[in-house]
């Protein structure tokens, strides 16, 4: 993916690396049952493992409300500034360039002036988000409370070394997927799904969550299709490989030896590949209706 000419001077960055803002524990929202009533320690440990590659706050898997209470919202770092932190290393720069590309793309696709980009936050090991503590084990995630994409860039190494999903397009797909969640917030989809989940059964809530994640995959494909001239040979294969490797069934098989479809929260490998491909082939966000499939 050729993004090296992207100017990142206006990308809003919260660089928490070396700031001592790490934290432990999970933010609890208003939804869901208390942890002790939901699962034992073994299942909780599995959730943490799965969250590593899902790019989602573990509390969304555990049933907590996606929206934090006001006391959970962490203030932005005083070091936050446009472009600052993008040039710390190659991974940071590429992440900022990808975010800039998604901003240009979605600004074209949204009605005039109605799109504003998320900020990107870098941390190492642990940090703070508007949704509570950010930890490397959670993988990349989007926080709707402060509209931030949170990333420990060491995750790119995990994609390559642990999950066999190497390549710059696989890395860009991670960012574009999280930006897809930002699009869902701006269009009101996220709020509607959250409201529906509050009165749904666990199985129904999981199905809604799967639809959310698959739509974000499709939106990532739309972004790539809108920038096809920047794609290089092998990029599509890199993206599809990444989507496959972080499918619920692949992860469950690797971590627990069995696949439990009722507990899926992001979709199977086949579903994730298919919806990413649908976005790539159509380039049209209107084709990403994963809820009406």
Can you give a write-up of this model?
The protein is α/β, with parallel strands linked by helices. It has one domain (about 10-285). Helix content is about 45%, strand content about 10%. It contains eleven helices and seven strands. Strands 2-1-3-7-6 form a five-stranded mixed beta sheet, covered by helices on one side. The protein is globular. The chain starts with 11 loop residues before the first strand and ends in an 11-residue tail after the last helix. About 45% of the residues are buried. The model is unreliable at about 25-80 (pLDDT under 50).
How would you sum up this structure in a few lines?
This protein has 293 residues and is α/β, with parallel strands linked by helices. The chain is built from eleven helices and seven strands. The chain has a five-stranded mixed β-sheet, with helices on one face. A two-stranded antiparallel ribbon has the order 4-5.
Q: Could you give the topology of this structure?
A:
Blueprint: E1 12-15, H1 35-38, H2 41-54, H3 58-62, E2 81-82, H4 90-109, E3 119-122, E4 126-129, E5 132-135, E6 141-143, E7 148-151, H5 155-161, H6 168-187, H7 189-198, H8 202-225, H9 235-245, H10 248-256, H11 269-282
Helix pairs in contact: 4-6, 6-8, 6-9, 7-8, 8-11, 9-11
Oligomer class: single chain
What is the arithmetic mean of pLDDT? 81
What would you call the structural class? alpha/beta
Low-confidence stretches: 23-79
- The number of helical elements comes to 11
Distance between the termini: 30 Å
Number of strands: 7
Number of domains: 1
Kindly report the spatial arrangement of strands forming the biggest sheet: 2-1-3-7-6
Beta-strand content estimate:
5-15%
Q: What form results from the Cα inertia axes?
A: globular
Write down the Rg.
18 Å
Give a quick account of the main beta sheet: strands, pairing sense, barrel closure.
5 strands, mixed
Could you state the order of secondary-structure elements as H and E? EHHHEHEEEEEHHHHHHH
Helix content: 40-55%
